[in-house]
Structure formats: C-alpha cells, structure tokens
C-alpha cells in the first residue's frame, strides 16, 4: 500500500505549479482526477513536442492521474463536480482569484456540501493583497521576487532561472501545506482552506539573500556561478569545459591547494589564506585558479578533486545529465508505455521509500480518458452518461474512435 492510498483528489489545475503538486500526490498513491475543459484541456497540452497529436510536455507532470473532461460553465457540469466533491478529500485549483466562486466551485460552496474538505488555491499573487487580481505566470513571479536581478553574470541583463523555479516552488509549497492539513484532518476531522502563490513560495526560498538584506542591507546581485559568502565555490573553466568546486571551508580549501592544484603556498600565506581574504580578492582568485585548471580536461580535475575529498563535478549539458551513469543508477530516467505516445521516457521519482516504495503506475491520460468511469463512480447510468456526451457536458477525445471500433 502506498502512503496516500485511498485519498481522493480533484485537480482543477493546469500548466506546472498545480500539476507538479498533484503529480507528487499521485506518486504517493492518491487517486488524482484532473477536471479539464474541452476540447483543449490543460493548457500544457498545447506544448510540443507532439507524437500522434499528444503533447510530451503534458505527459511529464501528469502521470498516475485520471482525466475527466467537463463543462464547468454548465449547470449539469457543476452538479457533476459537486457530486465528485462530496466524495473527495482534497481539491486543488489555480484559477485567477474569483473564478472558482463564479463557477460555484469555490471553498465556501464545497465546504457546505463536504465540511471536511481540504481546498488549496495556487495563484500568481495569492487571494489577497493589491496584486491578487493580476495574472501571474512563472516569468512574472521571477521578476517580482527579484530572482531575475540576482541571476546571470554581473553587469548582464536580467536572467531567468533555467527552470520554472517559482512554479515548482509554489507546487512544492502547496504540497507540504496539503500534507500538513491532511494530518490535521486525520487528528481532528477538520478540513480547511489553503492559499499560496508563485510569489510567496518563491520569496520564501530566498533564505541567504534575505539574511544579507535584513542583517546588513545588502541587495543580492548576479554573481554568475559564484557563492555570495564562500570561495572557491563556483564553476571554473577547464581545458575542455567547466568544473564545479565546492571548497566551502578552510579544511577543504587547504586540500584543494595542496592535493589538487599543487599550490601549497596559497594555503599558508598571501592573499588567499582565509575566507575573508578569498572573498576580498575573488576576481583574482578565479583568474589564478583557472590558469591552473585550464591545463587539463574536466575529467582529470574531477578525479583529482574526488581523490582529495573536495566536492566537485562536471558542468553538464542536459543530455549529458540524463545519460550520466549515476543518474541512471538512481532510477531517475524511467521508460513507460503510453497508449498514444507509445514507449516514452520520463523522469523517475526522486525520493526512495524503504517500506512503501513509490511507483509510476500509469502514464498521463489523454483528454477525458476516464470521463465515463468517473461518471459511473457517482452513480450515473449508461443512458444518463450517453445523454451528457450528446449534450456536450462531458468529453472523451478518443471516445468516437473507441465506439467505432466496438461497432465493428
């Protein structure tokens, strides 16, 4: 049995923040039903690459889920949602604030029919505050939180993170909030409302940067790959690429000087002896270290650094990462069979449970793949379900294809 087996979740989210949260919950064993509009569905379904008219990007954060395509702007569609909500433990949505209320699927409405519901809203700026009504994609949040002014090279243009960092931060924040609320519900029977945002969640991750500002008024600026408080702690150029060096304390610095680059004098006297000296002369330190490291390839230096016990590694391109033997050995690249995409690769599960190991049990669903099944679960008859399809209240992208095959 998986940790969240038996927990029923209705997922009204799209793109990445919400789907990332519900992906992890589904990996943990929860039964996650995506409620999607049609004919487009989750907006991430529009993102390529495409195979057989199905988007690969959607497939990544939507594994282990079911899809019910439902018209929530219709009275019957809302009634169906309310029936599902009566049986649910958790609802997660990422509409712009106010939209859920207009659709009559907001927390107050759902609580009146299911008092123990845990209901989580994820938005760009949160449900309150002067910016609450603004739209908020990841790039907007990266700008507002200052991330783009502390990323990249000194003197360069603002730079975004290489991944959708605020989306993932909001998804992870919603995740631990939901798990905390679920433990509270287990202890008391009480549900509750949770509100997080891309801005709040991302800002909460600026731990060192906030310390520097609150403690000394320092405003974080771009430092390339450098650490703001430690050196050598960055990527250095080698003969054929870059190597990361994490000589983050005095003992490691001395090992680096003596055992790795064979410059023992740097550890004993001169301008690099202690951490403050190294930070005061960090530009010269980078230049001097690179003069040594550029004499040999990255693999040579990684081996020497490893032998000396100094944390280090190569600076990979993403394809090199996915093909690295350690990444492969940790099961971080998995292969699964998708009914439309065929055999696909996906990222593995990053946490390993000793008693209840998690599994990728099924691929992401096509739009409306589980519509009929979910309607039967709330007690609708075959004729009632057929009428809902005819009235375009519900949808299954490949239902007509399946019906044709059955007819043959």
Describe the structure.
This protein is of the alpha/beta class. The chain has helices at residues 17-27, 56-59, 75-87, 99-102, 107-113, 138-144, 165-188, 198-203, 207-216, 250-260, 264-268, 275-280, 282-293, 298-308, 318-323, 325-329, 371-377, 382-390, 399-407; strands at residues 8-12, 31-36, 50-51, 54-55, 65-70, 90-93, 118-123, 192-197, 233-237, 242-246, 312-314, 333-338, 342-347, 394-395. The protein has two domains: 8-204 and 329-407, Rossmann fold (3-Layer(aba) Sandwich); 233-315, formyl-coa transferase, domain 3, CATH 3.30.1540.10. Helices cover 41% and strands 16% of the residues. The strands form four sheets. A seven-stranded mixed β-sheet has the order 8-7-6-1-2-5-14, with helices on both faces. Strands 9-10-11 form a three-stranded antiparallel β-sheet, covered by helices on one side. Strand 1, helix 1 and strand 2 (31-36) form a beta-alpha-beta unit. The radius of gyration is 26 Å and the shape is elongated. The two termini are 40 Å apart.
Distance between the termini: 40 Å
CATH class of the largest domain: Alpha Beta
Quickly give the CATH architecture of the largest domain.
3-Layer(aba) Sandwich
SS elements, strand count: 14
Structure classification = alpha/beta
Helical stretch tally = 19
Let me know the CATH homologous superfamily of the largest domain. Answer: Crotonobetainyl-coa:carnitine coa-transferase, domain 1
For the biggest sheet, the summary is: 7 strands, mixed
Q: How many separate structural domains?
A: 2
Shape summary: elongated
Query: What do the pLDDT scores average to?
Result: 96
Unreliable stretches: none
Strand content: 15-25%
